[in-house]
Design goal:
The chain is mainly α. It has 3 domains: 59 residues, no CATH class; 283 residues, no CATH class; 94 residues, no CATH class. The chain has a two-stranded parallel sheet. Helix 11 crosses helix 12. It is globular, with a radius of gyration of 24 Å. The two termini are 21 Å apart.
């Protein structure tokens, strides 16, 4: 047994060290040189360093302090979370918004809905707009939305902590509650109008209940129903989750002989059915159109655009004609390595549908001639997640807090939304030192809010389960990793995109009560 454990430990350390060394080499080379060419010179020296660090950290992962934690209280946890979130909300009152809110409010105003954004979240915005018809003020709408979201988030996190208390003990539940209360992103996002917030809370609860279903024989009945509902909510709030769950279910197939795994798989399948039916009902009721498939092409768009900028004179007249037909106003020359929107917004999806073969051939031809540019375009787009960067230098603010400069209500309803002036200096300081750069100039915060550190921590916690030989926990931990993989194909990396994985960290970090204490 010890020999088998030693082989597993060595294999996990080798795989983990190779992964981190590769990410480090690619990220560091891209950050300092603007290209991945030459990353191999860093790869080999980094391997033994990461192997040693992983060996130390994975061994330390078994340590658990003695002592009896105070009993977990769901009521006190809910009150704590709501108190902290309300305290921060007073600073940003009556609320703040991400740029997606502009598009969703436009859909509501014009009655032309699209599944590009989650219809469930758009419907929530629509319901919160009802008071405007009677009061003519958007402050009430903003308050209604933000208070609703804070209550929902406090509830989701309380249920997550309650699940952790049953599987991992009161100490893990209480520590997680403090994390959900005091980690900066939770405070900032609780009253921030964006679909990623509720999605993050649903992901945390889904993951916690999945662990409970897999490790606790008593997890039946209403808790399995709650797992199904949490999974349904997560699936309806982001399409990415559908792809991750589909692959995850395939990975669970070898364990179906176990009753608990069957329960977990059946709950997930039920959630898939419920979310699909729910989306169909909302789509029909709102007469919503399908989302633009061009949203799935962020990486190819970046790759072709990078080549167009770097080697424009080498492209043939036929190739340029194809690009000009598919992308309006030569938007491909607006290439920004860290966000695809500058090019994607000018794309004519209907042109791609009419002649897909020609564009596949163009994509393949450019890939064959400019493989380094293609690879660099991919790595530079995802580099904020790939590597703990030294400076947040990317195109979008770390957290977009729209209200002061560009008000989504004013754009569509010609009615301004006024923030209170009492805390204006605090908001200005937060915008300058936290929202724009992820607190890169503030010690400690610049580490715990670093996108690369967050993704590396998540990957480490999943590796830890493989190191321990807890294959059930490892399989469940793969769900956020699979979800993370879909985000790497997205248009941009920033704080709200990493948020669901931040929400999952306490669940991944907590250990069952059977863990040996030292």
């Amino acid at each position: 047994m010890k020999s088998r454990d030693s082989v597993r430990h060595a294999a996990v350390i080798a795989v983990g060290a190779a992964m981190y060394a590769l990410f480090f080499a690619l990220g560091r080379t891209m950050e300092t040189q603007g290209t991945c060419a030459g990353a191999g010179r860093l790869l080999l020296p980094a391997l033994p360093v990461f192997a040693l660090l992983l060996a130390l950290l994975l061994r330390a992962g078994d340590i658990r302090l003695r002592g009896r934690a105070k009993p977990f209280s769901a009521k006190r946890t809910f009150a704590l979370l709501l108190l902290v979130y309300t305290g921060f909300y007073i600073i940003v009152f009556p609320g703040t918004f991400a740029y997606d809110t502009f598009h969703q409010l436009g859909q509501i105003k014009n009655g032309a809905y699209s599944m590009h954004h989650p219809l469930l979240h758009t419907l929530l915005l629509r319901l919160c707009l009802i008071p405007y018809r009677f009061l003519g003020t958007f402050e009430v709408t903003a308050v209604l939305y933000c208070v609703t979201q804070m209550l929902v988030m406090a509830g989701l996190f309380t249920l997550t902590c309650a699940s952790l208390s049953r599987t991992c003990g009161d100490g893990a539940a209480r520590a997680s509650a403090w994390f959900f209360a005091l980690y900066p992103l939770h405070m900032c996002f609780a009253s921030h109008m964006t679909k990623d917030v509720i999605f993050g809370g649903a992901c945390a609860l889904m993951l916690a209940l999945a662990v409970e279903a897999a490790v606790r024989p008593a997890c039946e009945g209403r808790r399995l129903v709650l797992l199904t509902l949490a999974s349904t909510l997560a699936l309806m709030m982001r399409k990415n989750m559908l792809y991750a769950v589909a692959v995850w279910l395939v990975l669970l197939l070898p364990g179906l002989r176990r009753k608990r795994v069957r329960h977990l798989a059946l709950c997930t399948l039920a959630a898939l059915a419920l979310s699909t039916a729910g989306q169909a009902v909302l789509k029909t009721a709102l007469h919503a159109e399908d989302g633009d498939f061009g949203e799935m092409l962020s990486v190819p768009i970046q790759q072709v655009s990078r080549v167009s900028v770097k080697a424009y004179d080498a492209l043939s007249a036929e190739e340029l004609a194809l690009l000009d037909a598919a992308i309006m106003n030569q938007a491909y020359l607006n290439y920004d390595p860290y966000i695809s929107d500058a090019v994607k917004d000018g794309m004519r999806s209907e042109v791609l549908r009419e002649n897909p073969r020609a564009y596949l051939e163009l994509y393949g031809s450019l890939a064959k001639r400019y493989p380094q540019e293609y690879f660099d375009a991919l790595i530079e787009l995802i580099s904020p997640y790939l590597y703990p960067y030294a400076h947040y230098r990317f195109s979008r603010d770390y957290i977009e807090m729209r209200c002061k400069d560009e008000n989504p209500f004013e754009r569509y309803y010609s009615t301004p939304l006024e923030q209170n002036e009492t805390f204006a200096p605090v908001r200005e300081w937060l915008e300058q030192h936290v929202y724009r750069t992820g607190a890169e100039d503030i010690p400690v915060l610049n580490v715990i809010m670093n996108l690369g550190v967050i993704s590396w921590a998540m990957l480490f916690l999943v590796l830890r389960e493989a190191y321990r030989g807890d294959w059930m926990r490892f399989a469940i931990g793969l769900l956020p990793v699979l979800l993370f993989g879909t985000y790497l194909l997205g248009p941009v990396m920033q704080g709200r995109y990493i948020y669901p994985f931040v929400c999952c960290l306490p669940v991944l970090a907590s250990r069952e009560q059977t863990t040996k204490a030292l």
